[in-house]
């Protein structure tokens, strides 16, 4: 979505599941890729998936999929438009770390 396309936070999960389908092949395409017919389709449980391997500057590799970097994208965008929100995000992150939450290596 574009920044001006507001999504209510309560609807974010459902909206993401709907929008991500614009970036991947649908289940019909996945079914065409499986041969013979006894093979299961490439996509499972209705969730679009297109894993990508990325290499960090230190040489370590990670596999990410749709939605993996959503939070990082939001915070970097916020940085240029509202520094007060960045301070609030930093405080939330600090509390999360204090409670034992860890970030993924690629964020």
UniProtKB/TrEMBL annotation:
Domain named Aconitase/3-isopropylmalate dehydratase large subunit alpha/beta/alpha: residues: 2-107
Gene3D superfamilies, alphabetized: Aconitase, domain 3
E.C. no: 4.2.1.3
First-tier enzyme category under EC: lyase
Compositional bias (Polar residues): 40-55
Key words, A-Z: Iron, Iron-sulfur, Lyase, Metal-binding
Residue segments, region Disordered: 27-59
Cross-referenced InterPro entries: Acnase/IPM_dHydase_lsu_aba_1/3, Acoase/IPM_deHydtase_lsu_aba, Aconitase/IRP2, Aconitase_4Fe-4S_BS, Aconitase_4Fe-4S_dom
Pfam families membership: Aconitase (PF00330)
Superkingdom of origin organism: Bacteria
Listed cofactors: [4Fe-4S] cluster
GO molecular function, one term: metal ion binding
Family according to the record: Belongs to the aconitase/IPM isomerase family.
Protein name as catalogued: Aconitate hydratase
